């Protein structure tokens, strides 16, 4: 069978595509049929890929799919206009604009008439609050918005109760935003939001290999109270399993519908549950290239190769010293810590009883040298501890290395200095305390 003819520019286009802005390249792929073969054959290189609950972002361009509402017989309510301008709602609606999930999944929900009565009572209470002359302007604005939200829901409920045709229609809207530039595409809302989102993901991400220098999974802010939220059983009914606080197991689907083994990532930032993030990556991440860095909050870490093989695990925030008793990786850095005597003793005792291998390296950032000295004073008081130096500290401003004997002919070396150029990429404090397991005799007591 003769080979399929190729465009004259094919080889040149392949080279150009490799270095092209990924968003421009995607537009060419969608609009130029002759470019599709080129696009599929070359790795899509992305500097910053951010996957949030409500959207995903490729090198500064945000893609968001949502459900919007448009009145057919009058201008939109201000609340509807505001929701539409934000890209629409992130859950499915019925023809009346009411969430489908609340009817299908929550058996204890009141019926529509009861809900209308509840909302009317809420409006009366809010209107009473507005009569308070001591309210601040922001409080007044907040209450008025709550009243409008309640009235909008009453209108939709009453339309459903009367089974009248609603004076509005719902649409699926795709918003593509780059800075101030916004592109909108709307289609009739006929398929579930989830199915449409998966279709769009497959069109963008399932055509070949993808390299992401930086990958973020989760919102832009870290969930520092994640452990408390899990323990308190916080519920997120309208949130995709990937972004929920607690581990979701098999409910988590492969990230962005990327093909198996076709994703390479340099640095991974997880602002929420790392177990869910790892599950989403297990099939799509290439095993040939380990992560350079995993950055996340302290939590219960799964025993997973993606975490274990990462060159560095960075725990953001300031945590009690006890978190060092179960580090997720042999190279773990903590942005900050605080120490209590009993915590310190228990952690070091666990280290002494554990078979920690040579090369294990934990580090902690400190802003002030006085706090480093407090930590070192605790290490010096440990049984068998000696003050010494090693080849890494000998010619530095702070040459002391505390030596603590460990099992299996190993020793723990503790020392500190200012972060070097490489360390400043992940350590933004003035000082970095280093705790390294070395063969017995690596450091010399003085």
From TrEMBL:
<dbReference type="Pfam" id="PF12078">
    <property type="entry name" value="DUF3557"/>
</dbReference>
<protein>
    <submittedName>
        <fullName>Uncharacterized protein</fullName>
    </submittedName>
</protein>
<keyword id="KW-0175">Coiled coil</keyword>
<feature type="coiled-coil region">
    <location>
        <begin position="109"/>
        <end position="160"/>
    </location>
</feature>
<dbReference type="InterPro" id="IPR021942">
    <property type="entry name" value="DUF3557"/>
</dbReference>
């Amino acid at each position: 069978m003769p080979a399929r003819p190729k465009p004259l520019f094919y080889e040149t286009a392949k080279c150009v595509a490799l270095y092209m802005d990924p968003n421009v390249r995607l537009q060419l792929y969608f609009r130029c049929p002759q470019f599709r073969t080129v696009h599929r054959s070359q790795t899509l290189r992305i500097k910053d890929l951010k996957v949030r609950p409500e959207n995903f972002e490729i090198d500064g361009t945000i893609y968001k799919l949502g459900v919007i509402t448009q009145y057919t017989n009058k201008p939109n309510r201000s609340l509807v206009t505001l929701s539409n301008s934000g890209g629409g709602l992130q859950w499915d609606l019925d023809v009346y604009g009411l969430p489908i999930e609340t009817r299908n999944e929550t058996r204890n929900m009141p019926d529509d008439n009861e809900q209308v009565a509840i909302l009317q009572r809420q409006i009366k209470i809010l209107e009473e609050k507005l009569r308070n002359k001591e309210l601040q302007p922001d409080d007044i604005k907040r209450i008025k918005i709550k009243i409008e939200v309640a009235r909008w829901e009453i209108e939709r409920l009453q339309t459903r109760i009367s089974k009248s045709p609603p004076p509005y229609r719902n649409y699926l809207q795709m918003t593509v935003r780059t800075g101030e530039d916004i592109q909108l595409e709307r289609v009739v809302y006929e398929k579930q939001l989830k199915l449409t989102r998966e279709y769009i993901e497959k069109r963008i991400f399932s055509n070949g290999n993808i390299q992401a220098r930086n990958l973020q999974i989760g919102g832009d802010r870290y969930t520092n109270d994640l452990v408390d939220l899990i323990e308190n059983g916080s519920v997120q009914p309208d949130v995709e399993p990937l972004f929920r606080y607690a581990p979701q197991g098999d409910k988590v689907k492969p990230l962005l519908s990327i093909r198996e083994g076709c994703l390479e990532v340099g640095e991974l930032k997880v602002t929420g549950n790392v177990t869910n993030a790892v599950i989403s990556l297990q099939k799509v991440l290439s095993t040939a290239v380990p992560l350079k860095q995993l950055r996340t909050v302290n939590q219960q870490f799964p025993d997973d190769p993606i975490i274990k093989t990462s060159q560095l695990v960075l725990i953001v925030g300031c945590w009690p010293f006890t978190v060092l008793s179960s580090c997720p990786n042999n190279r773990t850095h903590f942005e900050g810590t605080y120490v209590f005597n009993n915590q310190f003793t228990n952690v070091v005792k666990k280290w002494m009883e554990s078979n920690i291998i040579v090369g294990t390296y934990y580090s902690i950032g400190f802003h002030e040298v006085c706090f480093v000295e407090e930590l070192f004073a605790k290490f010096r008081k440990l049984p068998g501890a000696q003050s010494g130096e090693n080849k890494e500290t000998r010619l530095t401003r702070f040459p002391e290395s505390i030596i603590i004997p460990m099992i299996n002919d190993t020793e723990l070396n503790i020392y500190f200095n200012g972060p070097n150029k490489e360390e400043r990429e992940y350590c933004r404090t003035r000082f970095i305390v280093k705790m390294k397991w070395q063969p017995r005799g690596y450091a010399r007591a003085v």
